[in-house]
Write a structure and sequence with these properties.
mainly beta, six-stranded antiparallel sheet, single chain, 8 helices, eight-stranded antiparallel sheet, about 650 residues, rod-shaped
Length: about 650
């Protein structure tokens, strides 16, 4: 059966080539008939040009480095592919031979019907025969097989007529992904579309292996959301061969036979739509990929894989948020962050071995910011540059904008007694809100406050401990932002103002006649001020003014008696408990009164007969006690009346 199909395919090939030849006696006639049509097609072909191919613009390593991974710098690409290595190939010329390769090349395209503008073509024939129009049958290869491809397809039991593969074209290389996915664009084209699409298909595969983890190869060239390899028989449209039904026709792109042949971009009978091969990968692991395509059972009716230039994406580390900001790579405009927020970001999923990281803010280097992760606290334009061991570098930037915080007020620390450690946290509500009309809550931690979680349920009657920090969260009604502040709870001995006893006024005679001053021992008043208080626990001080007594400044020196400065004079007293903090005290006062010394004079008959009686009169200070003697006898006392007089009868 296989021999019959091979023979029939060769017959079709010969027939296709024969019918494209023009007989001599028809030439003039054909020119006359086709001239108007030719003039018409000049305009049509200006936008339906075929692709162009060559094997000389780039070496095969350059095709991988500068075409498949990145366009050359002068073509707008970065060409920073420092993680690609170990590039090998096998073509019609053999293995890794730099010259005489005909089956791997570079293509360019301007035809809008062909979805790739440039890239790599891998053919089971010669890439020079791939450009359109579709006027010949390609069947040019006569070289070796590929055991990996054969064992893979044969092991799937989907092609019972498979005996071998021929004209195998292979491209392999290692790469290290920078993010957790890799992908590239491709399409499959074949001369077998149409006549042989029901049962006969060349094969291709993209074998991906995690070298670091030593995993088995996985084929990426599959029908989307399936495990079925892509081929002519798995993607076909029976509009071009009604001998069999359509299979996955949504993925069939263009049929280049019949009326489409003259304007076809390629010289293949048909092609799939543009597709993407992709896989999840582990960043910083080494991967190996083998791209292979081969003819089934014969060397005729070539097929090709077109790989999109610049589409092989192993990731470019971007600045992405983590934690609460996971999934974000923009922090401005609608994604602006709250003014008090700290945003942690990473330049890629994991650190890349051998790469140097450097962060800048508004163009200025950030000192010490040399790891793949950074926490942004200020607004501005952040950039990170990754420099690879090869010297190439990649840069990504993100703008951070802050939503202004609410203009809240400050909170005061609160105090309570150890015996009753209950605090009314709501004392801080009014000062913190500062006139704002919004929600406020109290929390045990800053994280809780920032996330409005775990609020204190009884803020007006909260039992706290000494040194406890309470966090206040104020919601912004127009944004998702929370503005926070904090205060501290204190437990301390509770004191009240003492009660000072009121001492009596001090009344003393003047020290010298008519001086109006006296020396007062103020210490004598202390006992009355203390009352029942223990003198060891309290301090009593004396002052000349109430202001000094309140301030505790300029006390009177009690080491000497105080001489009054006026008569009467008020003395102010301050009583305070030694253990109490400043501000707990009591004051009282008393007067110093100086009394003038009393005076007295004696009047009466100074000469009388012996044995007779006379009257002596004392005149002096009213109510004064007068002490006197008679003839040197003992002291005697008499009190003057309110008029300052007293009489004394005397017998001589």
């Amino acid at each position: 059966m296989n021999t019959y199909i091979w023979t029939f395919k060769q017959q079709i090939n010969i027939l296709k080539r024969f019918t494209n030849r023009k007989r001599p006696n028809k030439i003039a006639h054909m020119k006359r008939i086709l001239l108007p049509l030719f003039l018409f097609l000049i305009g049509y072909n200006s936008f339906a040009q075929p692709i162009t191919t060559n094997t000389t613009t780039y070496t095969i390593p350059q095709l991988v480095q500068d075409v498949l991974f990145a366009a050359p710098p002068d073509d707008g690409g970065s060409a920073c592919v420092g993680t690609v290595s170990n590039i090998t190939w096998r073509t019609d010329a053999g293995t890794n031979l730099p010259n005489n390769n005909k089956s791997i090349g570079y293509f360019q395209n301007t035809n809008p019907n062909f979805p790739l503008s440039k890239g790599i073509i891998m053919s089971t024939g010669f890439v020079a025969n791939a450009p359109g129009p579709n006027t010949t049958t390609q069947g040019n290869g006569i070289w070796g097989t590929d055991n990996d491809l054969f064992n893979y397809i044969d092991g799937l039991n989907i092609d019972t007529g498979l005996t071998d593969y021929n004209d195998a074209t292979v491209l392999e290389f290692d790469f290290t992904p920078l993010t957790n996915t890799m992908s590239f664009d491709f399409l499959f084209a074949s001369e077998e579309y149409g006549t042989f699409q029901c049962s006969y298909s060349d094969a291709f595969a993209f074998f991906l292996t995690n070298v670091t983890a030593a995993t088995p190869p996985t084929n990426l060239a599959l029908i989307p959301s399936s495990t079925t390899p892509i081929s002519v028989v798995t993607i076909r449209d029976n509009a071009y061969n009604n001998s069999c039904s359509s299979v996955n026709p949504l993925y069939f792109g263009n049929y280049n036979g019949g009326a489409n042949a003259a304007s076809a971009a390629t010289n293949f009978n048909g092609e799939t739509v543009l597709m993407t091969a992709s896989s999840t990968v582990i960043p910083n692991n080494v991967y190996h990929i083998k791209l292979v395509i081969a003819d089934r059972n014969d060397n005729n009716y070539d097929s090709a894989v077109f790989l999109g230039g610049g589409s092989f994406n192993i990731g470019s580390p971007t600045i992405d948020g983590v934690g609460d900001y996971a999934g974000l790579n923009s922090f401005s405009g609608p994604d602006a962050v709250c003014g008090s927020a700290a945003v942690t970001v990473q330049a890629g999923a994991v650190p890349i071995s051998g790469v140097t990281y450097s962060w800048t803010l508004d163009g200025d280097p950030i000192v010490g910011a040399t790891t793949y992760s950074y926490t942004m606290t200020d607004a501005g334009n952040y950039c990170v540059t990754l420099t690879y061991p090869s010297g190439c570098f990649q840069t990504d930037c993100t703008l951070v904008e802050h939503i202004p915080s609410l203009a809240i007020g400050s909170a005061d620390d609160l105090y309570a007694c150890p015996s009753s450690p209950t605090f009314n946290l709501t004392q801080n509500t009014v000062p913190v809100l500062n006139g704002l009309s919004t929600n406020l809550s109290y929390h045990h931690s800053l994280v809780d406050a920032q996330n409005l979680s775990g609020s204190i349920s009884n803020p007006a009657n909260y039992i706290g401990y000494d040194g406890e920090v309470i966090y206040v969260a104020v919601e912004d009604p127009s944004t998702p932002c929370i503005t926070t502040t904090q205060f501290t709870l204190h437990l301390q001995n509770c004191f009240t103002n003492p009660t000072a006893g009121t001492p009596p006024n001090m009344i003393q005679y003047e020290t010298t006649l008519n001086s109006g001053v006296s020396a007062f021992n103020l210490n004598s008043q202390t006992a009355a001020v203390l009352g029942s208080y223990n003198p060891a626990d309290y301090t009593v001080t004396y002052y000349l003014t109430q202001a000094d007594a309140d301030a505790g400044t300029n006390p009177i020196d009690l080491s000497v008696d105080y001489i009054n400065g006026s008569n009467p004079q008020t003395i102010f007293i301050r009583l305070e408990e030694n253990a109490a903090p400043a501000g707990y005290y009591a004051t009282t006062s008393f007067s110093l009164i100086v009394v003038a010394l009393p005076t007295v004079s004696i009047s009466g008959t100074i000469s009388i007969c012996s044995g007779t009686t006379t009257t002596i009169t004392f005149n002096g200070t009213p109510n004064a006690d007068v002490t006197y003697t008679v003839d040197g006898g003992p002291n005697q006392t008499i009190t003057l009346n309110g008029a300052g007089t007293a009489t004394l009868p005397t017998l001589c």
